[in-house]
Amino acid sequence: GDSVTQMEGPVTLSEEAFLTINCTYTATGYPSLFWYVQYPGEGLQLLLKATKADDKGSNKGFEATYRKETTSFHLEKGSVQVSDSAVYFCALSVNTDKLIFGTGTRLQVFP
Amino acid sequence: GAGVSQSPRYKVAKRGQDVALRCDPISGHVSLFWYQQALGQGPEFLTYFQNEAQLDKSGLPSDRFFAERPEGSVSTLKIQRTQQEDSAVYLCASSSVQGARLPQHFGDGTRLSIL
Lengths: 111, 115
Prior knowledge:
Order of helices and strands of chain B: EEEEEEEEEEE
Mean pLDDT of chain A: 94
Low-confidence stretches of chain A: none
Number of strands of chain A: 12
Number of helices of chain B: 0
Largest interface: A-B, 25 and 27 residues
Largest sheet of chain B: 7 strands, mixed
Structural class of chain B: mainly beta
Shape of chain A: globular
Helix content of chain B: under 10%
Oligomer: heterodimer
Mean pLDDT of chain B: 92
Order of helices and strands of chain A: EEEEEEEEEEEE
Radius of gyration of chain B: 13 Å
Protein backbone atom coordinates (compact mmCIF):
# COMPACT_ATOMS: atom_id res chain seq x y z
CA GLY A 1 0.00 0.00 0.00
CA ASP A 2 0.88 3.66 -0.04
CA SER A 3 3.39 4.74 2.59
CA VAL A 4 5.85 7.42 3.65
CA THR A 5 9.25 6.85 5.25
CA GLN A 6 11.13 9.68 6.87
CA MET A 7 14.36 9.83 8.81
CA GLU A 8 14.22 9.22 12.49
CA GLY A 9 14.98 11.97 14.89
CA PRO A 10 15.76 13.84 16.83
CA VAL A 11 17.81 15.99 14.53
CA THR A 12 19.90 18.33 16.64
CA LEU A 13 21.47 21.40 15.04
CA SER A 14 23.05 24.66 16.01
CA GLU A 15 21.41 27.88 14.89
CA GLU A 16 22.25 28.84 11.28
CA ALA A 17 23.15 25.26 10.33
CA PHE A 18 21.86 23.61 7.15
CA LEU A 19 18.91 21.26 7.54
CA THR A 20 17.91 18.21 5.55
CA ILE A 21 15.12 15.85 6.60
CA ASN A 22 14.80 12.91 4.24
CA CYS A 23 11.44 11.63 3.03
CA THR A 24 10.72 8.86 0.55
CA TYR A 25 7.39 7.47 -0.49
CA THR A 26 5.68 4.49 -2.06
CA ALA A 27 2.49 5.12 -3.98
CA THR A 28 0.33 3.15 -6.39
CA GLY A 29 -0.80 6.29 -8.19
CA TYR A 30 0.48 9.82 -8.73
CA PRO A 31 0.59 11.44 -5.29
CA SER A 32 0.57 14.99 -4.05
CA LEU A 33 3.27 15.51 -1.44
CA PHE A 34 3.21 17.64 1.68
CA TRP A 35 5.28 18.70 4.66
CA TYR A 36 3.38 19.51 7.83
CA VAL A 37 4.91 21.01 10.99
CA GLN A 38 3.79 20.68 14.60
CA TYR A 39 5.20 23.29 16.95
CA PRO A 40 5.20 22.51 20.69
CA GLY A 41 1.67 22.70 22.06
CA GLU A 42 0.13 23.48 18.70
CA GLY A 43 -1.74 21.64 15.97
CA LEU A 44 -0.47 20.47 12.61
CA GLN A 45 0.16 23.22 10.07
CA LEU A 46 0.82 22.85 6.37
CA LEU A 47 4.38 23.97 5.67
CA LEU A 48 4.61 23.36 1.91
CA LYS A 49 3.34 21.13 -0.86
CA ALA A 50 4.02 19.93 -4.39
CA THR A 51 1.53 18.32 -6.72
CA LYS A 52 3.61 17.10 -9.67
CA ALA A 53 7.08 15.91 -10.51
CA ASP A 54 9.88 18.51 -10.36
CA ASP A 55 7.63 21.00 -8.53
CA LYS A 56 9.37 22.80 -5.68
CA GLY A 57 7.33 23.76 -2.66
CA SER A 58 8.67 26.55 -0.48
CA ASN A 59 7.66 28.49 2.60
CA LYS A 60 9.41 30.29 5.49
CA GLY A 61 12.81 29.46 4.00
CA PHE A 62 12.03 25.74 3.75
CA GLU A 63 12.07 23.97 0.39
CA ALA A 64 11.29 20.51 -0.94
CA THR A 65 11.40 19.22 -4.53
CA TYR A 66 9.12 16.44 -5.82
CA ARG A 67 11.52 13.85 -7.27
CA LYS A 68 9.60 11.14 -9.06
CA GLU A 69 12.69 9.24 -10.20
CA THR A 70 13.86 8.76 -6.62
CA THR A 71 10.37 8.88 -5.03
CA SER A 72 11.62 11.50 -2.62
CA PHE A 73 10.53 14.83 -1.14
CA HIS A 74 13.38 15.90 1.13
CA LEU A 75 12.92 19.00 3.28
CA GLU A 76 15.76 21.55 3.34
CA LYS A 77 16.52 24.89 4.92
CA GLY A 78 19.73 26.80 4.50
CA SER A 79 19.92 28.38 7.96
CA VAL A 80 17.76 27.11 10.80
CA GLN A 81 16.61 29.17 13.76
CA VAL A 82 15.70 28.18 17.30
CA SER A 83 12.08 28.94 16.42
CA ASP A 84 12.17 26.13 13.82
CA SER A 85 12.29 23.55 16.61
CA ALA A 86 9.26 21.35 16.01
CA VAL A 87 8.17 17.96 14.68
CA TYR A 88 8.05 17.72 10.90
CA PHE A 89 5.78 15.26 9.08
CA CYS A 90 6.03 14.23 5.46
CA ALA A 91 2.72 13.14 3.92
CA LEU A 92 1.15 12.09 0.65
CA SER A 93 -2.29 11.91 -0.85
CA VAL A 94 -3.24 9.76 -3.86
CA ASN A 95 -6.56 10.20 -5.68
CA THR A 96 -8.53 10.23 -2.46
CA ASP A 97 -8.41 13.07 -0.02
CA LYS A 98 -6.91 11.26 2.96
CA LEU A 99 -3.36 12.01 3.98
CA ILE A 100 -0.83 9.29 4.70
CA PHE A 101 1.83 10.51 7.11
CA GLY A 102 5.33 9.46 8.03
CA THR A 103 6.22 8.96 11.66
CA GLY A 104 7.60 12.49 12.07
CA THR A 105 11.07 13.89 12.69
CA ARG A 106 11.77 16.05 15.71
CA LEU A 107 14.10 18.97 15.05
CA GLN A 108 15.89 20.64 17.94
CA VAL A 109 17.82 23.83 17.22
CA PHE A 110 20.15 25.24 19.87
CA PRO A 111 21.52 28.79 19.99
CA GLY B 1 -13.01 31.51 15.20
CA ALA B 2 -11.27 31.06 11.91
CA GLY B 3 -9.78 27.64 12.53
CA VAL B 4 -10.91 24.08 13.17
CA SER B 5 -12.12 23.75 16.75
CA GLN B 6 -12.08 20.51 18.72
CA SER B 7 -13.51 19.77 22.12
CA PRO B 8 -12.70 18.74 24.70
CA ARG B 9 -8.95 19.33 24.52
CA TYR B 10 -8.36 16.60 27.07
CA LYS B 11 -10.52 13.65 28.01
CA VAL B 12 -9.86 11.04 30.64
CA ALA B 13 -12.13 8.01 30.79
CA LYS B 14 -12.15 4.66 32.49
CA ARG B 15 -11.86 1.55 30.41
CA GLY B 16 -15.27 0.48 29.20
CA GLN B 17 -16.81 3.96 29.16
CA ASP B 18 -18.14 5.60 26.02
CA VAL B 19 -16.68 8.92 24.85
CA ALA B 20 -17.70 11.52 22.29
CA LEU B 21 -15.30 13.94 20.63
CA ARG B 22 -16.51 17.01 18.79
CA CYS B 23 -15.13 18.82 15.75
CA ASP B 24 -16.25 22.21 14.39
CA PRO B 25 -14.70 22.64 10.94
CA ILE B 26 -13.94 25.91 9.26
CA SER B 27 -17.23 27.44 8.13
CA GLY B 28 -18.14 26.35 4.62
CA HIS B 29 -15.61 23.56 4.41
CA VAL B 30 -17.06 20.61 2.57
CA SER B 31 -14.57 17.92 3.52
CA LEU B 32 -13.92 16.72 7.07
CA PHE B 33 -11.41 14.14 8.24
CA TRP B 34 -10.62 12.34 11.47
CA TYR B 35 -7.14 11.04 12.27
CA GLN B 36 -5.69 9.16 15.25
CA GLN B 37 -2.19 10.01 16.42
CA ALA B 38 -0.52 7.64 18.85
CA LEU B 39 2.37 8.91 20.97
CA GLY B 40 5.49 9.39 18.87
CA GLN B 41 3.74 8.45 15.63
CA GLY B 42 2.30 10.24 12.66
CA PRO B 43 -1.45 10.72 12.33
CA GLU B 44 -3.36 7.80 10.85
CA PHE B 45 -6.54 8.25 8.83
CA LEU B 46 -9.80 7.14 10.41
CA THR B 47 -12.67 8.45 8.31
CA TYR B 48 -13.74 11.11 5.79
CA PHE B 49 -16.93 13.06 5.15
CA GLN B 50 -17.98 15.12 2.18
CA ASN B 51 -20.80 17.26 3.55
CA GLU B 52 -22.97 14.80 5.52
CA ALA B 53 -21.93 11.75 3.54
CA GLN B 54 -19.33 9.45 5.07
CA LEU B 55 -17.39 8.45 1.97
CA ASP B 56 -14.56 6.51 3.55
CA LYS B 57 -14.44 4.80 6.94
CA SER B 58 -11.74 2.32 6.08
CA GLY B 59 -9.45 3.54 8.86
CA LEU B 60 -11.82 3.00 11.76
CA PRO B 61 -10.04 0.33 13.83
CA SER B 62 -13.13 -1.49 15.06
CA ASP B 63 -16.90 -1.33 15.22
CA ARG B 64 -16.53 0.47 18.55
CA PHE B 65 -15.64 3.59 16.57
CA PHE B 66 -18.43 5.58 14.98
CA ALA B 67 -18.45 9.02 13.36
CA GLU B 68 -21.25 11.21 12.13
CA ARG B 69 -21.79 14.60 10.54
CA PRO B 70 -25.58 14.82 10.27
CA GLU B 71 -25.93 18.38 8.95
CA GLY B 72 -22.69 18.57 7.00
CA SER B 73 -20.97 20.81 9.52
CA VAL B 74 -20.12 19.69 13.07
CA SER B 75 -18.87 16.13 13.40
CA THR B 76 -18.73 13.77 16.36
CA LEU B 77 -16.42 10.80 16.78
CA LYS B 78 -17.78 8.30 19.27
CA ILE B 79 -15.84 5.47 20.83
CA GLN B 80 -17.82 2.83 22.69
CA ARG B 81 -16.49 0.55 25.42
CA THR B 82 -13.11 2.27 25.38
CA GLN B 83 -9.91 0.25 25.68
CA GLN B 84 -6.45 1.34 26.76
CA GLU B 85 -5.18 1.10 23.19
CA ASP B 86 -7.64 3.87 22.26
CA SER B 87 -5.44 6.36 24.16
CA ALA B 88 -4.19 8.82 21.54
CA VAL B 89 -4.66 12.30 20.18
CA TYR B 90 -7.65 12.50 17.85
CA LEU B 91 -7.24 15.11 15.14
CA CYS B 92 -9.92 16.66 12.99
CA ALA B 93 -9.16 18.42 9.71
CA SER B 94 -11.24 20.17 7.08
CA SER B 95 -10.72 21.43 3.55
CA SER B 96 -12.75 23.73 1.38
CA VAL B 97 -13.62 21.45 -1.51
CA GLN B 98 -13.01 17.87 -2.50
CA GLY B 99 -9.59 17.46 -3.98
CA ALA B 100 -6.45 15.61 -3.03
CA ARG B 101 -4.28 18.58 -3.87
CA LEU B 102 -5.86 21.02 -1.47
CA PRO B 103 -4.42 21.46 2.00
CA GLN B 104 -6.23 20.24 5.06
CA HIS B 105 -6.56 22.54 8.08
CA PHE B 106 -6.10 20.77 11.37
CA GLY B 107 -7.52 21.41 14.82
CA ASP B 108 -5.40 21.16 17.95
CA GLY B 109 -6.77 17.71 18.71
CA THR B 110 -8.37 15.94 21.65
CA ARG B 111 -5.98 14.01 23.85
CA LEU B 112 -7.80 10.91 25.07
CA SER B 113 -6.44 8.92 27.98
CA ILE B 114 -8.05 5.63 28.96
CA LEU B 115 -7.29 4.46 32.48
